[in-house]
Amino acid sequence: MKIAFFGSSLVSAYWNGAATYYRGIIRALYEQGHQVTFYEPDAFERQQNRDIPDPEYATVKVYEATEAAAQAMLDDAAGADLLVKASGVGVLDEFLEAGVLKTRREGKLAAFWDVDAPATLHRVHTNAGDPFLKLIPQYDYIFTYGGGNPVIEQYKALGAKECIPIYNALDPDTHHPVPEDEAFSCDAAFLGNRLPDREQRVEEFFLKAAALLPEKSFMLGGSGWGDKPMTPNVKYLGHVSTNKHNAFNCTPMAVLNICRESMATNGFSPATRVFEAAGAGACIITDYWEGIELFLEPGKEVLVARNGVEVADILQDLTPERAKKIGQAALKRVLAEHTYRHRAIQFEEILAKHLNIEA
Q1: What is the pLDDT of residues 184-205, one digit of tens each?
Q2: Rounded-to-integer distance, Cα 160 and Cα 155, Å
Q3: Strand order in the sheet with 284-287
Q4: Does the pTM of the predicted model rise above 0.85?
């Protein structure tokens, strides 16, 4: 199957948390025999901050952030068996959402791939004039990278023909155990960009825990936190390149996962970093959200906290030996059930009736 994918960026994770999800899914699809062309705009300095070259598993086409250039890419993609518009490209989203549907040829497919379904649904529910509302029923599929039944039911109520979660997962060739790096040595670390619906939760689950444990060492990675007040036991790293993520996850005694507000409220939305960290054998402390047990078993494969005090309590009692045991259990679980190959097979099962399209 020939797939045309319009997304934020495949080659740069700079202000682009979905990059590793795209890479994992698309690489697994390539390994299953599908041909993917990824169309991404030259925007937000992502091309100046690439962290991988053009990969072998996809053809990457970069275009200027103009309607004329985007239309040229849509024309280029017109022969695809499946045209995909991902949410959150960041520029020309409305143009592309309508454009993919106009470009779809008879007998071919169009899908909207929502990498932040709770936010998208909140947006359309609070704005009856949102142009995306009338497009939802026109897509053959709505794929989401999380959300479970709450998201499925909401999309179906808006007229979606099909809404199917294809969850984040692990690419074991990219995220795996590596030797520890002293530069990331600490008791607890968190990696995530500063975003409006994440900041308050980082204050609660990470910065508050650090303030309660002055004798413990903490590290914060991600863009945008430079002017954030922090206690002296927090070291701010700034942007951490993806080629350092394994060491970042392997080295600290524990790694925190802190969901964005919308995803924590909705539940069933494991962040990419959960699988990246588990794949590196990290001991993960996550904020609570409904559905955790579908992916990792609380207390055995992941530690769960409902607030910063509970994070501090966990860290107070956690030993390196127990942390290592939890990390190894998480690694075993995700390798057995939650790799991108598992997700690619799920994708093929969904599209089985269409996969006889000639490549």
Answers
A1: 999 999 999 998 889 999 999 9
A2: 6
A3: 234-238, 218-221, 188-191, 254-257, 284-287, 303-305
A4: yes
